[in-house]
Amino acid sequence: MSFMRTVTVALTGAAGIYGGLVLYREYFVKAQYTGNEQLFGKTAIVTGANTGIGREVAHDLARRGARVIMACRDMKKCEEAREKIVADSFNTNVVCRECDLASIESIQNFAEQINKDEKYLHLLINNAGVMWHPSKLTKDGFEQHLGVNYLGHFLLTNLLVEKLSKCSPSRIVNLTSSMYKRGQIDFDDLNNSKKTFNAKIAYEQAALAIVIATQEFCRQYPNSGVTATCVNPGITRTDIARHTIDKSFFSRVIIGPLLKAFMKTPMQGAQAVLQCALDPKLEGQCGKYFSDMKEEPVGANAKNDKDAKRLWLISERWTRLKK
Ligand SMILES: NC(=O)c1ccc[n+]([C@@H]2O[C@H](COP(=O)([O-])OP(=O)(O)OC[C@H]3O[C@@H](n4cnc5c(N)ncnc54)[C@H](OP(=O)(O)O)[C@@H]3O)[C@@H](O)[C@H]2O)c1
């Protein structure tokens, strides 16, 4: 009897702590972007908009009246998400367009369609990404993190910058991770093909490449009227963990829900992205880095201008922007 009582007390205590953590996350950790900018007449592209943070950003932009182009690789998932966004936001000006960031050809086709068919483009949210993906090459032979998270968005940005510039002031928001601080650009083996593959190192390198290229973008396009910002959304419970904690049944069912208490919801993760996209105070400011809605100085490993130029030139060649 006393054993049962002990178990009951322990379970009640654990449930109380868990509930407390959830409440803490909901009411104290949560930072919310409170600006009420309206986006009627504005056009925004969100990559990877069918789930997670991207879907919440697309949803919010739609609620504000923007024309939202959801750039996704899986059209079925995209259409399902689009229908929900339209139903919730009462904005029918939300469309799906195919864009697989693991394929140069797909990105080129997508950008060509945008440049031909869209009258305006004011916002580009480079959100799609993979984390700790097992070793696998993209269609063009790039390591997945480098190819999708960094090179794919690098190419997309450069193919759309003219259109963004014509609609200036316009903004680009590049999602990255605070793990960029641990990253290194390995110029001898940028594509992770010589050394033993380590998904964590590959993710960190891609995250750093995003931060470096965001600043180099500002030097490459100084008078374009287009600003680029990079943002770490904070630890958010999304499908991003599909190659890590969500891999095993035990992790999914036991560890996943426990960790959930400490993590942001996708809507909370989206707030930092919305701030970078919309906050009038950031108008004209290029190359900033935000983490959890606070501006932070860019880390020392992302500040070498010579490395930035070198990375930019390699990226231009590898994505066939320049021979
Ligand atoms: N969640 C976090 O804690 C966290 C922390 C730091 C940074 N971030 C960054 O935040 C961004 C959004 O992540 P999330 O947490 O929302 O992840 P998520 O729920 O896994 O969403 C990722 C999105 O990217 C898409 N995607 C993946 N590969 C693609 C490809 N080849 N072409 C086009 N789209 C592709 C996915 O499409 P499918 O559904 O078809 O796979 C999905 O729509 C990522 O860049 C991530 O690195 C997240």
From TrEMBL:
Keywords: Oxidoreductase. InterPro entries: NAD(P)-bd_dom_sf (IPR036291), SDR_fam (IPR002347). Pfam families: adh_short (PF00106). GO terms for molecular function: oxidoreductase activity. It comes from Adineta ricciae. This is Retinol dehydrogenase 13-like protein.
